[in-house]
Amino acid sequence: MSTTEDTAQVAEPTVRPVLAAAVELARAAVVELGQGPVGPHLGVHAEPDPDGAAATHRFAAELAGYRGWEWAVVVAAAPDATAATVSEVVALPGADALVSPTWLPWEERVRAGDLGPGDLLPPPVDDPRLVPGYLASDDPAVEEVALEVGLGRRRVMSRDGRLDAAERWFEGTSGPAADVAVAATLPCGTCGFYLPLAGSLRAAFGVCGNELAADGRVVHTEYGCGAHSDTVVADGAATPVTELVRDDSQLDLVEPAAAPQPAEPDQAAELDQAAEPDQAAELDQPAELDEAAEPDEAVPVE
C-alpha cells in the first residue's frame, strides 16, 4: 500500500461545516454554566462517528486553580440538519494542565521502610515471589529441610522471588558498587565475620557478623569495608611524647625588650630644684604660726 493511502487512513475526519460554524453556540453553552470567564477558542475536531454527526469545540478555561484546563463542548447535527445543538459541556485537562498523579492502589504505594511496629502487611494474592511448600522450590537447601520436618513450610520463596532479592541486594548499599566497597581493599567473601547464606544464594551473599561494620545486614561477597578481619595497620609505632626531640636550630631568636633607662643627672637635679620651693614653704608654715601666736602670749593679765 502506498504512503498516500497510509496517510489517508490515519488522517482525522473532516468536520462538517454546520458543526465547525457552531463556535458561538458552544461558547454560549459554557457561559451559561456560570463558572467564570471563557477563554479564546482553541480549535475543533470531529468525533469518531461514521456519519460525522458530532464535533468538539475547545475553549481555554480561565478558572482559578485549573491552569492548562480546557472547556470541551460537543455539538451534534443530523446528516440533513442545517443547525447544530449542544450535546455535552465538560472541563478537561490540556497538554500542560496541572493534574494529580496517577492513582495507585494502596498495596502498590508501600515502600521499603514504611512498615512500622504493629503494622500488618500480607503478601498479595498469587504473589510470584512465593510458591506452595509442597512444590519443588528449586533450592536444594529448602527441599532438604522440608524432607526433614515432613512437609516443610506452607510457602517458600520461588526462584523469581530469590532472583528479585538478589538483584535488589546487589544494587543496594551493601553491593559491590557501594562507595564503601569501592574504597575497601579486601572483599567480604574472605572476611572472618562473613556468614554465608544457605541455599542457592550462598554463592553470592552472606550476613555480616561484625558489630562495628554492617552488623546483621545482607552483604554481597564482593562488598567490603575497612573492618575486614585481615586488616593490618601499617608498621611503625607512634613516638611517645617523652621522646620528642627539639631542634634548637629551628627556633626563632627574638631580641629581649629594652629595660627602662634611669634618669640622667641633669634631669634629676631639675626634679630636685622643682621640689625645693614646696618643701621650703612647708617648713615656713610653723614659723608663721608661732609669730602669729606671740602677741597673745605677751598681753599682761589684769
Annotation, overall tally of beta strands:
9
Oligomer kind? single chain
Query: What sort of overall outline do the alpha carbons produce when their principal axes are compared?
Result: flat
**Rg calc:** 51 Å
**Strand pairing plus helix content: what structural class?**
alpha+beta
Residues in β-strands, percent: 15-25%
Side by side, the strands of the main sheet go 1-2-3-4
Largest sheet features: 4 strands, antiparallel
How much helix is in the residues?
Answer: 25-40%
Unreliable sequence segments = 1-8
Spell out the helices and strands N to C: HHHEEEEHEHEHHEEEH
Distance between the first and last residues' Cα: 169 Å
Kindly report the average pLDDT value: 78
User: Helix count, per DSSP?
Assistant: 8
Explain what the structure shows.
With 302 residues, the protein is of the alpha+beta class. Among the domains are: 3-93; 169-220, no CATH class. It has helices at 3-10, 17-20, 23-33, 106-109, 140-149, 159-171, 179-183, 265-298; strands spanning 38-46, 54-61, 69-76, 85-93, 130-132, 155-157, 194-196, 205-208, 218-220. A four-stranded antiparallel β-sheet has the order 1-2-3-4, with helices on one face. β1 and β2 (54-61) form a beta hairpin. The longest helix is centred in the C-terminal third of the chain and has 34 residues, at 265-298. It is flat, with a radius of gyration of 51 Å. The relative contact order is 0.06.
